[in-house]
Amino acid sequence: EVQLVESGGGLVQPGGSLRLSCGAHGFTFSSGYMIWVRQAPGKGLEWVSRITPDGKTTYTDSVKGRFPVSRDNAKNMMYLQMNSLKDEDTGLYYCATEYFSSPLDWGQGTQVTVFS
Q1: Which of 22, 49, 95, 102 is most buried, with most CB under 10 Å away?
Q2: Are 49 and 35 in contact (CB under 8 A)?
């Protein structure tokens, strides 16, 4: 059974930083395409970033240059370093596996709240 567990969310002021972690179990993580997805209050899901098994990354424009994604295949972990946070980054952040360009397995999410 695939399990994804996010952690690292919290309250932060604009301009601050947080580091989200995603622990993966139940599949061959080193072969998996992994993504981060977020949901702002009252809005739909927004794809944030992707990292391929060999570490190639892509980002939505709104986080490009601020939210580097990384992975440690030896530890079955993925990370999202969130820098220069803005109010509009507030939301529930999920990690997920990606299969044929679609999310497949999801974690439970971790809340990020940016407040002035």
Answers
A1: 95
A2: yes
